[in-house]
Amino acid sequence: MPKLYKFDSGLTLFYETNTVNKATSVEISFDCGARCDGELPGLSHFCEHMFFTGTDKLSKQDVTTRYYDFIDVNAFTNNAEIAFVGTIVSGKLGQYLSTVQDMICNSTFKPKAVEEEKKIVIQEIVQDADRHGRHADRLRAYELYKKEYFKYGALGNKESVSKIQSKDVKNYVKKYFVNNNCYVSICSPLSFSKIKKIVKKNFEQLMPTNNLKPLVNDESKLIDGEYVNVYKKDIGKNFVSIAFKFKRSGPDLKYRAIMGTVCNMIDDISDGLTKELRIDNSLIYSMGSDYMINKVNSYMAIYTEISSQNIKPCLDIIINYIKNIIANGFTKEQLKKEQEKDDYYWQTKVYRPVDIKNNLTRLRFYGKFVSDKEIHHLVQHLTLDEINLAVRELFSSAQIQLFVYGNADKKDVYTIKQILKKF
Question: 221-248 pLDDT, tens per residue?
Answer without folding.
Answer: 899 999 999 999 999 889 999 999 998 8
